[in-house]
């Protein structure tokens, strides 16, 4: 059934989905001519042309790195780069290369400056984009890979969550110097490989086993003087449940989390998270290989640090939603099965 589903998607979905199925699921080596044809189709899509219009001569998209201006229809630079990378474009596409090169220049952070941005870790965002682009060899990447690993070490070393978070007034704050993994840590580790040795893999496996028992986690803040700073994209949602048993507004986060842990090799057969993904695969089988559930489009079609998954141009079409979400589940399955070697 899965092959029939993938064949249908190759022939009836957008060029990105067709290309990524062949490259990332079937692991085909496409010819140069085939890649050029796919890239030509991709960059002529309506949304892609709109995004490219936002790029300045120096390579920056819009005027802000992480958060777009209020009431602006222009995405952040981060969101635009993530979008182009998810489309399957690579560094041979000059606008994408320029968009990453500009992040090596002084002032790349734009609005992400000051103590709050330092505590938040704006470098995590930059590192996550370079990781997804396959640019792991820059010196600054070593620092942020280590920061990501340390987040999992804190879980691994903890007896329970109270070793990491403590009450503060009516909220929770991190114990000084400690933190939990955020979405950027997952992205960094999902797309890099230098950290993958037996010791780190065993540590992260055990950390995920503990995290599973702690979820969902109430918001935890970083206390700086009298200010409480929210960490970026804390992975504290109800990931230890089936997709269709959680609130629909968290579906984007659930799918993102499962894709990233699959890329990390952490959706293996004995992972506590695996049964929840198997439940989703059972749903697909019951529906002839397709993801038919409808979701509010905003979290999927608006690209930022915390949203954006749609590859199809028009999510007003239920068919396009089906294509996108079916592809994403098939991709996660392929990544999980490929990484089940531990």
Explain the overall architecture.
By secondary structure, this protein is mainly alpha-helical. The protein has a domain at 132-236. Helices cover 51% and strands 5% of the residues. It contains 15 helices and 4 strands. Strands 1-2-3-4 form a 4-stranded mixed β-sheet, covered by helices on one side. Strand 1 (165-168) and strand 2 (171-174) form a beta hairpin. Helix 2 (15-25) packs parallel to helix 15 and helix 5 packs parallel to helix 8 (122-132). The longest helix is centred in the C-terminal third of the chain and has 22 residues, at 318-339. The protein is globular and about 55 Å long. The two termini are 28 Å apart. The model has no long low-confidence stretch (mean pLDDT 93).
Q: What is the H/E string? A: HHHHHHHHHEEHHEEHHHH
The largest sheet is: 4 strands, mixed
The helix count comes to: 15
Strand order of the largest sheet: 1-2-3-4
Total number of strands? 4
Low-confidence stretches: none
Given the C-alpha coordinates, what overall shape results? Answer: globular
The share of residues in helices is 40-55%
SS content category = mainly alpha
What's the mean pLDDT score? 93
**What distance lies between the first and last C-alpha atoms, to the nearest angstrom?**
28 Å
Overall radius of gyration: 20 Å
Strand content: under 5%
Keywords summarizing the entry:
mainly alpha, four-stranded mixed sheet, 15 helices, 342 residues
């Amino acid at each position: 059934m899965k092959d029939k589903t993938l064949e249908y998607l190759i022939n009836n979905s957008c060029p990105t989905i067709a290309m990524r199925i062949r490259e990332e699921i079937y692991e085909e080596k496409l010819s140069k001519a085939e890649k050029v044809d796919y890239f030509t189709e991709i960059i002529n899509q309506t949304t892609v042309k709109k995004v490219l219009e936002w790029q300045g001569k120096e390579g920056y998209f819009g005027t802000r790195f992480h958060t777009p201006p209020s009431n602006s229809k222009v995405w952040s630079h981060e969101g635009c780069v993530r979008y182009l990378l998810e489309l399957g474009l690579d560094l041979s596409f000059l606008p994408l290369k320029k968009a990453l090169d500009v992040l090596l220049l002084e002032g790349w952070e734009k609005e992400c400056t000051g103590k709050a941005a330092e505590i938040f870790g704006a470098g995590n965002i930059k590192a996550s984009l370079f990781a997804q682009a396959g640019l792991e060899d820059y010196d600054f990447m070593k620092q942020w890979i280590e920061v990501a690993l340390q987040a999992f070490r804190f879980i691994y070393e903890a007896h329970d969550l109270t070793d990491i978070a403590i009450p503060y007034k009516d909220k929770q704050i991190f114990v000084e110097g400690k933190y939990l993994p955020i979405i950027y840590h997952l992205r960094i580790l999902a797309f890099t490989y230098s950290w993958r040795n037996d010791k780190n893999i065993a540590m992260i496996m055990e950390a995920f086993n503990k995290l599973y028992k702690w979820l969902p986690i109430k918001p935890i803040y970083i206390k700086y003087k009298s200010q409480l700073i929210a960490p970026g994209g804390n992975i504290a949602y109800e990931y230890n449940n089936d997709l269709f048993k959680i609130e629909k507004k968290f579906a984007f986060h659930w799918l993102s989390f499962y894709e990233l842990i699959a890329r990390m090799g952490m959706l293996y057969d004995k992972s506590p998270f695996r049964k929840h993904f198997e439940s989703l695969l059972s749903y697909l089988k019951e529906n002839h290989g397709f993801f038919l559930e409808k979701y509010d489009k905003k979290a999927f079609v608006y690209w930022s640090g915390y949203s954006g998954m749609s590859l199809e141009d028009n999510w007003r079409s239920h068919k396009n939603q089906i294509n996108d979400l079916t592809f994403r589940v098939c991709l996660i399955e392929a990544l999980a099965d490929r990484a089940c070697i531990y």
